[in-house]
Amino acid sequence: MAVRRIVANIASPQVDAARDFYGSVLGLEVVMDLGWIVTFAATGVEAAPQISVASEGGSGTPVPDISVEVDDLDEVHRRAVAAGLPIEYGPTREPWGVTRFHVRDPFGRLVNILSHP
Questions:
Q1: What predicted TM-score, i.e. pTM, was given to this entire model?
Q2: Which position has the higher pLDDT, 47 or 55?
């Protein structure tokens, strides 16, 4: 038995609002759209499914609802700022080796955007 995928599910009556944040800001592609659920994915990459459990978010921050690793943090940060999204933390190079920032998605979820050097 092997876990093949873990998907974060965010409850919201505004599934179309996800297109701007998860599509335009993060550059994810719609891989399923049934009207009542829209699933976004990064294409062309292979990653092992992961789930984290945390008592705090590190560096005195709250625990984010989800973490998204990107290959160009500066570009995603630029897109988030251009979209008028409030940056709640960072960008900051953390002692454990990642650079990250926190932003809220349209549904109020705290998203940890990170990059490994």
A1: 0.87
A2: 55
Peptide bond into 49 cis (omega under 30): no
CA distances from 99 to 27, 45, 68 (A): 19, 20, 12
Distance CA 73, CA 79 (A): 10
- Cα angle value 62/112/80 (rounded, 5°): 120
Give the integer Cα–Cα distance in Å for 73 and 83: 15
Q: What is the pLDDT of residues 32-46, one digit of tens each?
A: 999 888 999 998 888
Q: CA–CA separation, 91 vs 26, rounded Å?
A: 16
pLDDT 10s digits, 72-84? 999 999 999 999 9
Residue 59 CA, chain-centre distance (Å), reads: 19
